[in-house]
Automatic annotation (TrEMBL):
Enzyme kind, highest EC tier: transferase
The family this protein is said to belong to: Belongs to the glycosyltransferase 31 family.
GO cellular component: Golgi membrane
Species in which this protein is naturally found: Carnegiea gigantea
Keyword terms, alphabetized: Glycosyltransferase, Golgi apparatus, Manganese, Membrane, Signal-anchor, Transferase, Transmembrane, Transmembrane helix
Cofactor: Mn(2+)
EC number(s) from the headed UniProt entry: 2.4.1.-
MF terms in GO: beta-1,3-galactosyltransferase activity
This protein's name: Hexosyltransferase
PANTHER family xref list: BETA-1,3-GALACTOSYLTRANSFERASE 7, BETA-1,3-N-ACETYLGLUCOSAMINYLTRANSFERASE
Keyword Glycosyltransferase: yes
Classification via InterPro entries: DUF4094 (IPR025298), Glyco_trans_31 (IPR002659)
Amino acid sequence: MMRNRNSGKISVKWVPIICVSFFFLGMLFTNRLWEPQESDDHLISSHHQPNQELQAVCEDCGTKKKPRDEKDIMEEVQKTHESIKSLDKSVSMLQMELAATRSSRELINSDKSGSATKLTAQDGQPKKKVFVVIGINTAFSSRKRRDSVRETWMPQGEKLKKLESEKGVVIRFTIGHSATSNSILDRAIDAEDAQHHDFLRLEHVEGYHELSAKTKIFFSTAIAKWDADFYVKVDDDVHVNLGVLASTLAHYRSKPRVYIGCMKSGPVLSQKNVKYHEPEYWKFGEEGNKYFRHATGQIYAISKDLATYISINQPILHKYANEDVSLGSWFIGLDVEHIDERSMCCGTPPDCEWKAQAGTVCVASFDWSCSGICQSVEKIKDVHEKCGEGDDGIWGVLL
């Protein structure tokens, strides 16, 4: 009995040890209890910090967002502008490549076949092989000039057809259209063409300040219709000896890129309200400078390669105020031989008359003071009688 009661009691010596143990257990429990609270404070603090930063950014949006948007818009506009420029350039290059491919194909077909009717014109008809195409530049108001040319150096009717079929010499008056569709001016040209059949109508609106554009369109139209060795432009107040012209051109038949005419280099006129004023005079250097060498505009000839070049590059060839300057500028930088043929710019009698008597019949005659024969309607007959090669001149030339 005494042993059982004593065994149920805790010995006094264990009391301090038990107390110390509970103390440490309490401390351990207390520390674990407070750790989450500290962790929560830390999390709450961390949670508030991004909100504060976001709030600071949002407060800053009011002052910086608008300039940033304007800058982005300007960048987009610039990118769009560059894209449009690039697209325009691509379209232009494709047009040039298409024209070049078409011209090259025609030249290859011509070389392979050797046939005069192998090439095809734009209207689907066979493109005839000829020696030269002569375009006589004329205007709506120049009916009397055209009649004076028909009565002198330009064959008419069956003779004109025979000249084309037997000698390969094509002659046409070149003219575009008026600004008003189917106007009385256009109808008058249609009636005249129905009578004489000697016009080449161009897709061009006539105007004195549009001569450079008309020249480009003439060469492009002519080379699309005829496969010629040479293409000639002449004004309707100039006298021409067709036989001498043909024999002169024949000397250069073997050369690929020739530009034939009376070469000159006149002054660049910067003064306004004067004839032949050049608005883009500053491009030619200091005031008082001269133009580069180019053929005078009354008459000149170019070989097939150069006419093809004009046709292919027509959209990007720059037009100056003066047509002869424009033509000369298109050949700058190309491997072109300039032929200074002085017989293409003889004066009217007595100049061309003396030369004819000396055995040197001129290709063309006109007055420099008038940029053509002065009062050509009345005087061209006199020039033809005194300086002409004779009605049979062209028929005796071997081409």
